[in-house]
Write a structure and sequence with these properties.
Blueprint: H1 2-8, E1 20-23, E2 27-31, E3 42-43, E4 54-55, E5 60-64
C-alpha cells in the first residue's frame, strides 16, 4: 500500500510552456518555465551521469555540440 501511494504522488513543479531552444555555434541552449521554481534536475536521456549533459537547480541546460549523444549534420542551402 505504501509503495502504491508513493508511486501516485505528483511532483508539484511542472513545465508550463513550450521550452525555448536556441542553437548556438558551440552549444544548444534549452530553457524551461515551471510552475513553482527551477527544476532540480534537467538531463539528456541516457546521459544523466555525464556532467556535460546535466543541469541542477537551474531553468536551463546548455548542451555542447557533438556531446551527450548529439549528432551534427551540415546542410547546404
Amino acid at each position: 500500500l505504501i509503495v502504491h501511494f508513493a508511486a501516485s504522488l505528483k511532483y508539484p513543479n511542472e513545465i508550463v510552456d513550450t521550452p525555448s531552444i536556441t542553437c548556438e555555434h558551440d552549444r544548444m541552449l534549452i530553457k524551461v518555465k515551471t510552475t513553482v521554481s527551477n527544476p532540480s534536475h534537467i538531463y539528456v536521456d541516457d546521459h544523466a551521469e555525464d556532467a556535460n549533459c546535466v543541469s541542477r537547480n537551474q531553468n536551463r541546460i546548455a548542451i555542447p555540440l557533438g556531446n551527450c549523444g548529439m549528432t551534427i549534420e551540415k546542410m547546404v542551402l
